[in-house]
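From the pipeline queue, job 12 of 40. The input is one protein chain; the requested action is below.

Action: predict structure.
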Amino acid sequence: MNNRHYNIYFHTHTVSGIVISVVLFVIFFAGSFSFFRDEIINWERSESTAITREIQLDYNDALQHLDKKYVLHGRNITISKPSVENRVAVYMEGTKDTLAPKKQQAGDFFYLDNKNYKTYTYEESYSLGELLYRLHFLAQIPYPAGYYLAGFTALFFLFAIITGVLLHWNKIVSNFYMFRPKEKLKTLWTDAHTALGMIGLPFQFVYAVTGAFFMIKLLIVAPAVMALYKGDQDKLYKELEYKDPDYKFENKKLANPFNINELVAKTKNNWSDFEITRVFIQNYGDANMHVLVEGELLSHKKFTGIGKVVYRVADGKEIAKKDPIAQTTYLDVVKNVLYRIHFGDYGGYALKIVSFILGIITCFVIISGVMIWLVARQKNNMPEKKRRFNNAVVRIYLAICLSMYPITALAFIGSKIFYPLSQSNLYALYFGGWLLLAIFFIIKKNDAFTNKFCLISGSILGFLIPITNGIVSGNWFWTSFMENKFQIFFIDVFWIFLAAISLYTAYHLKPKKAIA
């Protein structure tokens, strides 16, 4: 590689990496915990549920309860299961009956407990698992600014990955095996950055591509909507199969009784290893009522196998059917594969744990890249003013990034002791504590102290998480295991291992002096 190309790749890699480093760290750290979002939600609520994507619900009983509270006649109702928990998501459109009271003409969204049919608003159902999941794509920043920031960060990360590979291409094998912890500081950080970067390269590439796609796809799609569909967004969504068929409301009551449970069971029995993930009811109680039952095959049977059946309730006739085995389209594959590989929900706990480890490794790659940048700019021939500025930048970076570990552990304890914490109180605990901790480290002006304090305090708090759970809920990890409450057991044991590893790391850290 000639010097000109090397310099282009080097400066592109460095600039793109430094500009996005803090945001990227937040995305990967929160994203790593998001692999266990469902487990965190159930742990926080002291609940355990069947580990399946299928909706567990008596539809007939649930709809009768909802009908008494909301009056369902003429409404479109969508029942889905966004995560593995006891609650299902229910979205109700306003009734199509124009003579109905205004209250019935308003739509609503809530979560429904599948056992006692108690309803929860989004704010009431908010949890630490939801906070961490949404933090990993910066949803707390007002829409669409947070989404676009996360998307463009992923896009810049893709540039950093590609230019990093091009930089190390000639020595990609030899550098992978090279690690010299006893050499000068710059060498240590460089070796760690290169070796760990190569280990996590496929993982990082996948998440850079899929993350950019999910967050800024609106900007990608917008020109196509304007040029190919002449601004008709509904037509695009229909062709992409994001829009369900619409059936006319006849404003006549359905003469015959109906049984949604039977329609769901009938659909499920069409194919083995098929899980029902969504039920869409149109024109509830009307003569032209239709029910769409949708699901997918288990991932070990077919990675992308989406099937659905549409029933006309008046006579129980199937009016549309999509076979998940024989009728999988290219469009289904594209849509589903991107989601599957991003969420890592197809390989059980083994894949989740591996993905978490690779996510934390990526966090270390980001930090080591920042440290390389700092050490390279601490030469004696550099003006003192610039050196102080560089130190201040890295101090702020480290304070924001490293303090995420103890504050996340503290949030687990707080969410358990004060359950249920409201969304605003959870925000105050997590983001308020994070801000105070970051400010403290910035004022302290000691990067080694920041690193060691975060690791040790995070470890201590991590060990306290299963203890707190045992005291508050009585779910000690050994009793959870014996009672087959695996999600609760997993989070407790997960924190014991994570705290032990970070404590071991903290006590084996030996500060090195920078050598120009």
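Job complete. The first strand starts at residue 77 and ends at 80.
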